[in-house]
Amino acid sequence: MIAAIDDDTDLVCVALVSNVNGHIESMRRISDAAHAHGALVYADVIQAAGIVPFDVVDLGIDFAACNGYKWLYGPHGCGFLYVREDLQGGVLPDYRYPGSSNPNYLEEPDADEPDFPFHAPSSASRYQPGHVSYLGYSAVYEGIKFLNRVGVENFLAHSLRLVARIRDRIDSAKYELVSPYTDRSPIITFRSPDARHLNPALREARADLSVSSNRVRISPAIYNNEEDVDRLLEILNAG
Question: Do residues 25 and 141 both lie within one domain?
C-alpha cells in the first residue's frame, strides 16, 4: 500500500482492523507515507472501536467512521464520524444544511446577521443533517458506559483468550488459519472448502458466526466463554 502512494494520491482509505481476517494495519506508517505526499487518510474503524485500543491522533488519521453495532454494543442505524478539526468545513466542506440556524427576524434582529444566520458547529456534528437515531444512540450510550466500566483492554484480553483456544484446538487439517495476528486481534478466520455445509449444525447449536463458501470467521466477545468455544469447536471439528 505504501508503495502505491505517490504525489497523485489524494486520499488513502484503510480498514484499521480487517473484517475478513482480523489483520491490523500499520496505520502510523501508512499515515506518514500519505501525509508525506500531501494525501489524507480515512480509516474504517468499526472492527476496532470498543475492542482494539487506538488513538486517531497518534495514528495520524484524518477521518474515521464506524457503525455502533459491532463492538460498541449498539444496534444498526447509529454510527460515529471523526473529522480532524483543522480539516472541517474546508477540505471536507459542509454539503448539507445541518439545521443549526436561528431566525434573525424575531424580537430584536441583529443588523450584522442575515435572516437565517448559520454558524457551523466546531465538531463532526456539522456533517449531521436532521435527526439522529435517538433510540439507537440511547442503546449505544449504554454500551459505551459498559465499555468504560470494564475497560477496552479487558474486553480485548478476554477475546484473545478465546481466540487462542480456537486457534490451538481446531482441526488444522480441515481449517487453514488465515489470520496473521491471533495474539492481538479479536477476529480469527479459517479457510475451509464448502464451509456452508456447517450452517445446519451451527443453527441448531445457536452458534452465530460468519460462514461463506470457503471461509469461517469467528469473533468471540465478552458475552462468550470457554464453554461456547468448546461447543463451537465440536461442530467445526466434526464437520
Answer: yes
